[in-house]
Specification:
Mean pLDDT: 88
Helix content: 25-40%
Largest sheet: 9 strands, mixed
Strand content: 15-25%
Distance between the termini: 21 Å
Number of helices: 8
Structural class: alpha/beta
Order of helices and strands: EEHEHEHEHEHHEHEEEEH
Length: 256
């Protein structure tokens, strides 16, 4: 078994095993840890050999690291505005010896089109903040930035992704169903044509609480609605589809 370099850890941090191709990630339980939405998005993305990929608002780098486990040939750029979180992502990349394939940039995604080449990326991925700012939020709080549109809006994310993508490039995002009208509006506004959508349900009896969407830049209109994905069965265990996404046949309830 390969020895884990614990020298990359800072105070209050831990190393979690992603249980996919021996990949690991550094997380701070006092901050914002990744959830199943990141895993679902990484699985939803279709990758082709030697594509140029960018992840907007990468957090601790979970989506680029998972995508690196799916393909050995692609180069991924990851953008994160928070210094401490971006540093954690960089150390996770180093932990997995992915330095040559994943580049983490500490940058406001709204500045991406000023600092990076536009119309050049094959794939944009993003798991953006889902919620509008409410009440008195600390604009520098890690959890507030991750969950609420404090540093960027849905329109910022979609417009930036559209500018970075090449013609017919693919935009992948996970979000909340209650924002579907906004998502469709902004995608059309910035010439990202919705091509596939899939709704994620907590179980067979509850309404969807997440959605996955794939858009293509300057493509012709035609939307395919995929079969819904259910996370838990009636016994509270992961469904067969979720087991397959995680690549494990046996996952204890509540353990990821």
């Amino acid at each position: 078994m390969k020895k884990i370099n614990t020298n990359l850890l800072r105070q209050d941090e831990r190393i979690d095993d992603l249980q996919i191709n021996n990949l690991k990630i550094i997380q701070n339980p006092k901050g914002f840890c990744f959830g199943i939405d990141a895993v679902l998005l990484a699985n939803f993305v279709e990758l082709r050999k030697n594509e140029k990929i960018i992840d907007l608002g990468t957090g601790t780098g979970i989506i680029p690291i998972l995508m690196a486990g799916k393909s050995k040939y692609n180069h991924i750029t990851a953008i994160e505005i928070q210094d401490k979180v971006a540093d954690m992502a960089k150390r996770s990349v180093k932990l997995n010896n992915l330095d040559s394939r994943i580049k983490v940039l500490t940058m406001d995604l709204k500045d991406a089109t000023k600092n990076l080449e536009v119309n050049t990326y094959d794939v944009v991925t993003t798991n953006p903040p889902y919620m509008h700012p409410k009440g008195l939020l600390n604009p520098e709080d890690m959890k507030s930035i991750s969950r609420h549109e404090v540093k960027c809006t849905l329109e910022d994310v979609i417009s930036t992704g559209a500018r970075l993508l090449k013609h017919l490039g693919r935009f992948y995002m996970i979000h909340r169903p209650q924002r579907l009208v906004d998502i469709m509006y902004y995608c059309r506004k910035y010439k990202l044509e919705p091509k596939k959508i899939q709704f994620i349900h907590p179980n067979f009896h509850k309404r969807p609480n997440l959605l996955l969407i794939e858009c293509r830049k300057a493509a012709k209109p035609e939307l395919k609605v995929l079969d819904p994905l259910y996370v838990y069965d009636d016994n509270g265990n992961y469904t067969k589809e979720i087991y397959e996404i995680y690549g494990r046949k046996n996952i204890e309830k509540g353990v990821e």
